[in-house]
Structures are given as C-alpha cells and as structure tokens.
Amino acid sequence: MTSQDQMAPKRPYLKLEEMILNMGPQHPATHGVLRLVLHLNGEMIVKVDPVLGYLHRGLEKLAENRTYYQFLAMLSRLDYLANIFMEWPLVRCIEGLMEIEVPRRAEYLRIIVAELNRITSHQMALGDFMLNLGAGTPMFWVFRDRERIVDLLELLTGQRMMYNYMRVGGVRYDIPEGFEAECRSFLAGFPAKIDEYEKLITDNEIFLARTLGVGIIERDEAIDYGLTGPNLRASGVSWDLRKDDAYSAYNDFDFGIPIGKHGDCFDRYKCRVEEMRQSLRIIEQALDNLPEGPVNVKLPPMLRPPAGEKYRAVEGPRGEWGNFLVSNGGLRPYRLKMRDPNFVAISTLPRILPGYKIADMIAIGGSMDFMLGGADR
Amino acid sequence: MTEMQTDQQNRKQLHPAEVLELARELVGEDCEEVYLDDRGNMLIRLDAPQLAVVIRALRDDDRLSYRYLVMVTATDYEDHMEAVYMLRSMNHGVPVELRADLDRDDPHIPSLALLYSTACWHEREAYDMFGVVYDGHPELTRILTGRKEEMYPLRKDARPERRPRREWRYEGIPAALRLPGERDRSERS
Question: Residue A109: inside a domain, yes or no?
C-alpha cells in the first residue's frame, strides 16, 4: 500500500444503479405529447428512448379517402404553428402533376403569407424555448407581437390559425383593402421588437450559461441525420430550399441565410432570430413589387390530376416539409407520404442527449423546436 | 456567432445531364434504368438486393455526393409494392429518387441504417405502415402505431375502421403490482 492510498479519504461505498424516468407524455417541455424514456445515472442521461405516436391521427390514410380540397382543409392540423407550410407542398404536387402555371401575383401572396407565418412560428419557438428555461417574460412579449401578425393573417385569409388559404393554381383571396398599410406599419415597427427580444435574451448571463456549448451537433452529423431548417444551418451548413431549390418566386428576392458556427443551442436560437429579420425583408420586397393580375386560375371544382408521382418540398420554419403524391388519375390521392422535419429532429435525440443532464435536455429540446403534431401525423 | 450568407459559396452547379452521365457511369450496371424526368430530377429503378450497393456508391462519390437522405417510404399497388427513396446532394441541385419493386407477400429490402443515421427511423415508419422488412436494421419495431397493432394500416386492404372497438374497463391494480396491504380498488363500492 502506497502512502498516497493511505492519505485518500475513506468514502462510503455508494451503490450506483440506472434509474428509468418517463418524461412525458404530459410534460410541458416536450412540445406536445412526446414520451422520452430516460435512463439516468444520477442526473446524467445514459440512454434515451423516444416514444412517439400519441398524436398519430393517420392522416396519410385519411388522405386516401378524401378529395383533394377536402383534405387540404385538414392539413393545417398537422403542424399547427406553421400551417401554410403544410398546405403548400401538396398544392405544388398537384400543380406539378396537372402542369398548371401559377399566376405571379398568387406566388407573391403565397410568399407573403408564408413569411408572416414563419415569423409567428419562430416567435413561438423563442417563447417556448425561454419558458422551458424558466424565463416567463419573453413568452408574453412574443404573444403581444404575434397578435399583430395573426390579425394580419386573419385579414388576408379569414382565419387566425387554420388558414386553408392555398388553392391549386393560386390562393383563395386577393389582398383586402387596408392590408398593405397595416402590413407596412407592422414591418416598420417589428425590427425594434426583435431588438427588444435580443436585449432581453441574447446577453442574459443565465441564458448563455445554459445554451453556449450545449447540445452541439457537428456539421457532418447534422447532414447524416437529415436535419433541415435552422437546426441544420446552426451547424454551419448553408442549405435552404428557398435558395437551393428556388421554388415559387423566391428567385426574385434578395435575402440572406443565417448560418451558425458551432451547432449548439445558442446558434439554433440565434439563427431563428436572424431568420425573422430576413423574413421581414422578403415581405417588404414582395409588397413593393407585388405584380398585378389574377390570384387564381380557373379549374373544375373536382380535381383529377393525371396518373403519376411527384415529390415537392418547401422550406418551413422547422425544415424541409415535403409531400410525395401518387395519383392514379382519380378524385382522391392514391398515396400521400408526408416527410416531416420534426420526426427527423426527434430521431437525433438518442444521439445527442446521452452525457447531458436533465436540465440540459430541456434546453436542447427547446432549441430544436420540434412539434409533435407534425411528427406523429 | 452567426454569419450571413447571401449567395451559395463553394457550390458547383452541375447540369442535370452531367449528373445523369456521372450516375450512369457509376451505378448504371447495377440498375435497371437511370433517367431524368421533365423537371430535371433523376430517377433510378433497380432490383431490391442492389439497393445498398447503389446508394453507397452515390453517397461516396465526390462529385455526386448524395449525402442527405430525405425520405424512405413505400407505395402499395395492390399487386406489388414499391420502395421509394429520395436523396439530395449538397453539391448540386439534382435530387434522385430510387424505386425498387417488392413482393407484396414477403417484402424484403436491405436496410440503409448503417449508411445514413436518419434511415433508422424512416425505415421503422415504413415497416410500421406497410410491413416492409428492412434486412439488417438494428431495431425494426413499430414507431407511430402502438406495440399491439396487428395490421399494416397503409396497405390498401387494411381497414382500420373495421377493427373491433375495445371497451375500456378499469380492472383494478394487478395483484403483482399491489403494495403490501393494498386492496384491489375495483372492489370498492
């Protein structure tokens, strides 16, 4: 026995055993009804087993029993914070199969609605994230400003949440009187509000301590896991379907893609904040250059897209939302597969979480901003 | 922390025809068909056993570099099934769609779980919905429907609405889980 061992304090024998903790399905920090079976060593996460399906409504099966317009109204119920992005790919699939040219004005209106919706979604992501971390104030500030956007969307689409605004070959309504003035006054005021959020959050020491260097996803890992949207861009990959696929009329607009460096929780938060600013730029340009003309093309009330398969995707606030539509020339889709970014984001949790503490798990989950309504379909 | 990017850097835009040429050179022999559709997307038809070989070649090639698996799914055509894969490349803007015919009674196809981490869950979903067996998958279990689910709901002959409705009845705490001295609560008046 060396002298070193003699000097070491005698410790009582501590029995360590793995504990299993069910987090959810009713946990407020799991953004819906996700159950995470956590295997814990003390407070350290050893293994995570996500259990999905609590919100599974079988929408892919329901689609096969409904006509296209009937189903379009159901789609908003998927990811209930980013509804427009649910309707858009299906509409694009049908347009691709029927070879319909969408009027320019309709494309611009779609972009305005989508970018407004993207801001509301990112605001909710921000508020939820901060609420999970224990800061209540941002949630209320975010809701205060979100109300104005929701009012704008109500003016345009007639609904506050479930828009059902996209139509095959265009959109449902043209912009109403007074919308442009309202929207411009919102655009003028909102950058100051984003600065306000940043002042409250970005330099907050507690926030920094809990997010900097936490939940790092490396660049290659993010691509390997098929992450998209701000979660991917925070890892330093410049990939945005608005630029890389250039669907709709996004080629006409000048906007930047914020990308992070480290892929930690802070970068994911920061990417979302910057994206809100870029969305404002897009809306402003769209209002400035809004073309004249019709907002819809005349189509029969019952659509019969010709037989074939199409995959179309849009860049939603949480990533690539894509639909794979198989038509057999009938009134109803033969098969509709919905590719969802939330599903993919949750699939990374078993890889990222082990090694972190439970409190970090809340921060990582909040920063990934997944929505179970979309993941379970 | 974040920096802004206004245009795409380091991205050589390959023309779809070039991509097609490269792909034909690389995997043309292993596939039935490699062709472009009218909108410049590449389509590949192949036999199911060749899948992993072809996709590995497409992924590891420096110029094609299909490193992003978008989705894995299947379609039921009543007489046969079709496995569908979508891949994107961060080097160029030509997505590729791969299709393989499957036997409807005994659908088997190699798993991609070792090539792409994301394939793991996508394949579990396709198994859950269609019963496609991905050979070599580390954990092929149901993911969206319950553990006790018996049908493959997205198959055309599945009729979820005809499933017998289960009455829910509280049957008390199972004897094995009862604490010492605890009574079975279903007996209380």
Answer: yes
